[in-house]
Here is the input.
Amino acid sequence: MTENIRQNEVERPSQFATTLFRFFRRPTVLLVAGTCFGLLVGWSVFSFSNLTGKSRFVVGGGITGLVISAVMVAYNKRWETLTLSEIKINVPEFAELKFAINDEYRRVAWKVFIEALTRVATQPLGAEDGSLREALTSLHGLFATTRDLLKNMKPSKPTSNVTVEVFAVKMLNQEIRPFLSKWHIQLKKFESTNPDAPESEWHENVDCRKELEGLSDRLIKYTTAFGELAGVQNVAGFFERDAN
Here is the structure.
């Protein structure tokens, strides 16, 4: 249910934007909007052409300045999006890593951070608690979602530093994939031969949970790094667990 709620929250802005886009594509709306825009342009040109002397130079200079300012703002935003800056992060087991980061990569890091933070990947699963099948399904979802995020982002510019996608691929291929490749097959065999038996009767139940706990500890380090890359304040606070 939590996954569905979060998915709905993500989809709402997209649905609103789609509805708004469709509305403005209607022929009637386009006709009215075009007419209003044409009237506004015509009135502006007529008003400007009637100006003389100092007033005409002032208005012309103001318009020129506005256009130049708009171009500069657009250029600065584009520059901030494309320009790579360096950020150093201490990641346990990796020591200090130098990352190449920009606005686009921060957004990707934020999305990976939220996806990992809200899944079993970084949440405790006690020896007698929860479901291993749900945990493996959640990990598979994290793998697929992260892969889709990487597929939809632009490739990084050449750099000697670590990039968000390199770090994410490392998390997928060196951590999540080996775990799923091993335990998904083993658990599936047990489920197919013992369809009505609880997971507690699976002879590898304890071993799987131990490895899941180790994976969770490592994924927390990855997730923390993604949070820091995204500019999240007090990342450690997201992983504090209730002592009760």
